[in-house]
Specification:
The structure is a single chain. It is globular and about 40 Å long. About 6% of the residues have low confidence. The longest helix has 14 residues. It has 7 helices and 10 strands. Helix 1 runs parallel beside helix 2 and helix 1 crosses helix 7. It has 241 residues and is α/β, with parallel strands linked by helices. This is Methyltransferase. InterPro entries: DNA_methylase_N6_adenine_CS, rRNA_Ade_Mease_Trfase_CS, SAM-dependent_MTases_sf, Small_mtfrase_dom, tRNA_Adenine-N(6)_MTase. Keywords: Methyltransferase, S-adenosyl-L-methionine, Transferase.
């Protein structure tokens, strides 16, 4: 039987993720460091898992209140425990709720998500992890419309997606009047194809800022590339070597 992952140690907090359907990975870590917002008061973390994005948002944006929404009960329970033990617990709240059934009058200056996305080639074999990582295209688009409706007038929606999913959904985002303003193509190393897209959308059309983000020094190395290191240097522990 494989060992449960040990708590992940950050500079200012420790985060357990052994009960979460969605384990800590570079997708969420890169998104957490890359996203930009100007003094947000209210942040929503959709599909909050173990609470990673919510807790880092609380560290980065010191005046914001953060709400996490998670449908998986064990993940939600673990996120609540993680929040209690972090330095910003008073500003973080998690709800065990399906986004489609969640009603609130509040509007959010920033919505951040490493969302479930649909791809048969990416379906995970274990049931809870598969649920955390996959969704039908129809369900995904219903979520995006609901998130768009929850944005404040000047708010933004930040996502991480596989490139094929981003390409296939661009027209639907435009129909929802969600327009990309920042994009980063994420490469594992310098010569690798892009494996993820970080995208930040808003309700106002604007020129698109596009960049390339490299995670590691080489295909075999786990040493962070300087680009990635800059993004995570305020919350991840420094590396040796």
């Amino acid at each position: 039987m494989p060992k449960s992952p040990t708590p992940f140690q950050f500079q200012k907090f420790s985060l357990a993720h052994d009960q979460s359907a969605h384990k800590i990975g570079t997708d969420s870590l890169a998104l957490a460091g890359w996203v930009e917002a100007s003094n947000p008061n209210a942040i929503l973390d959709f599909g909050s898992g173990s609470g990673l994005l919510s807790i880092i948002m609380a560290q980065r944006f010191t005046e914001a209140s953060i709400v996490g929404l998670e449908i998986d009960k064990a993940s939600w329970q673990q996120s609540c425990e993680n929040a209690k033990s972090c330095p910003w617990s008073k500003r973080i709240q998690f709800h065990h709720q399906d986004l489609r059934d969640w009603n609130t009058e509040r509007r959010y200056d920033l919505i951040i998500s490493n969302p479930p996305y649909f791809s048969e080639s990416l379906l995970a074999p274990e049931k809870r992890r598969a649920q955390a990582r996959s969704a039908s295209a129809e369900t995904f688009l219903l979520w995006m419309q609901k998130l768009r409706d929850l944005l404040s007038a000047d708010g933004s929606l930040a996502l991480v997606l596989p490139p094929l999913q981003w390409e296939s959904y661009q027209d639907q985002f435009r129909e929802m009047e969600l327009y990309p303003r920042r994009m980063a193509l994420v490469h594992h190393h310098e010569s690798a194809e892009a494996s993820r897209v970080l995208i930040q959308l808003s309700k106002q059309a604007s020129s698109l800022e596009k960049e390339k983000l490299i995670l590691y020094a080489s295909a075999q190395s786990h040493i962070r590339h300087p680009q990635y290191q800059i993004l995570v240097q305020d919350f991840m522990l420094p590396q040796n070597g």
